[in-house]
Amino acid sequence: MKKFFASVAATALFVGGAGVAFADSHSEMSDKKDIVETASSKEDFSTLVTAVSEAGLVEALQGDGPFTVFAPTNDAFAALPDGTVETLLMDENIDQLQAILKLHVVAGKIKSKDIAEGTTEVETLGGETIEVVNDGHSITVGGAEVIMADVYTSNGVIHAIDGVILPE
């Protein structure tokens, strides 16, 4: 799995800026924790961390990167229909869980200020394309709104989103 993540070409979005919350005290250069360690230290990502672990993607997301992770919050997972998360975490559904999680990861480090105003399609590590929309006031990714941007890690950046991106 690590090789898969490392082999995907970087996708870039250019110049923009939107009215989203920014991470408070995370300097781009000072954070020594990787994506998984950073997400694990934030209570609001506990469901995501559990899903990444169950899907066997921890090692991949601890790789060199850089990666951009559009991270659904616990509330985003809770908004899915009853039983969805529990069903996805079952051993027999690991392939489906991995596919969903890979929809939330893009190769490269995309900071919120680098997202151009308008609509841009980006390829995820799952090979699917999602739309990133910057309307000048907010940013949405696959229909989910970025509610906290620019949580820097040693191997990329995390943007918290208010929904779970699902395959079409």
UniProtKB/TrEMBL annotation:
Keywords: Signal
PROSITE patterns (alphabetical): FAS1
Presence of keyword Lipoprotein: no
The keyword Signal belongs to this UniProt entry's keyword annotation: yes
GO cellular component term of the entry, any: extracellular space
Signal peptide extent: 1-23
FAS1 domain location: 32-165
Lineage top rank: taxon: Bacteria
UniProt name for this protein: Fasciclin domain-containing protein
Organism: Henriciella algicola
